[in-house]
Amino acid sequence: MGSAALAKLLVELDLASLLAQDYALFGYPQANPRPRGSGGREFTNDFWCGSADPAVRFFERELEGNAFDAVIFIQGNQPISGFQIRTCSRLIATEVLWPAVELAQRFVPLAPEPIRLRPSAGFEPASIFNTGHVRPRPFCLSLCTPRQQSGENQISAIIFSLKQILHHYRAAIRYAGYL
To answer: Where are the domains of the chain?
Structure first.
């Protein structure tokens, strides 16, 4: 689901490139080689501890070397009741994510807590979300769609919410210069 949404988003941004103007977007489809339930640890929890896994090492280098503003994870077909975005940034949640959630609900129902704030200090030390040592420190988002919804609706919710995130993040950065 996430790979299909990413591919469709990139095609749409190529056709209407104004939204992606001034962004350097990197897409990594199927980045989780060990999905939940495969018997191993969750892929996102093997970071920053000297993992021998080449995929983990690759993404550690990407995060440390590319000075990302954000890292966005797409998680489709999740065992959740509705669309949800998880982040540890209260500012991003307030200024950027609510418009994205409002648009996503046109395609899939929202979770009871559509924007879930994770405590930044509460992450496992070996989690990919624990980016406190990366400079500049990117904020992390995880977009999750419920598995009981059609694939087409999940993809639409992901694409439209990501477009809103790009738009509102640009506005937030623009206004930050006036603070």
So the answer is: 2-31+41-176
Helix (H) or strand (E) holding 11: helix 2-15
For the entire predicted model, the pTM comes to 0.86
> What residues have CB less than 8 Å from 170, skipping those under 6 apart?
22
Give, in order, the Cα–Cα distances in Å from 81 to each of 85, 144, 147, 152, 161.
Answer: 13, 10, 8, 17, 18
Can you tell me the distance from the alpha carbon of 59 to that of 43, in angstroms, rounded to the nearest whole number?
Answer: 11
pLDDT tens for 26-77 read: 998 776 665 555 555 677 778 888 888 888 899 999 999 999 999 898 989 9
Residue with tokens 């994770």: 118
Strands 139-146 and 70-78: parallel
State the number of CA atoms in the 13 A half-sphere of 131 facing the CB.
28
